[in-house]
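Section 3.1: Structural characterization of target chains.
Under the original work plan, the team committed to producing a structural model for every single-chain target entering the pipeline before any wet-lab resources were allocated. The record below documents one such target. The sequence was received from the expression subgroup and is listed exactly as submitted; it comprises 132 residues.
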Amino acid sequence: MGRKLDQIISSLPKARREAIEKRSKAISEAMVQASLQELRQAAEKTQAQIAASMGLAQNAVSQLESRSDLRLSTLRRYVDAVGGTVTVVVELKGGKRYQIRQGTPDLAISPRRSVSVTKRGADRKTPDRRAK
């Protein structure tokens, strides 16, 4: 049986582990700073295409892209329209990270598991009232 990534990293010298952690954080922070507009442009889609996929008017997508606060369900619908998936990662003090799975009654939290938030169906057909 192969070794897990955590085992490989833990066997590295301390300086190397610190360098890996620093680079990992820098990459994560750079990804978080992308706006919805940049995400849409990276996917080579127009606001009109996103609006049609979400069942909204183009101006509603423009408003979504300029907001500083979104519902998770709205973000999920937007990202789905762009062609991606949303993964929610929670980092607690001490650096422990969790990815949240949706679809279970208690929103189960699993440490270090690669699970994306993908709820489709009813959300896709119901426009977000906050976008109006």
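The beta strands are 88-91, 97-100, 109-111.
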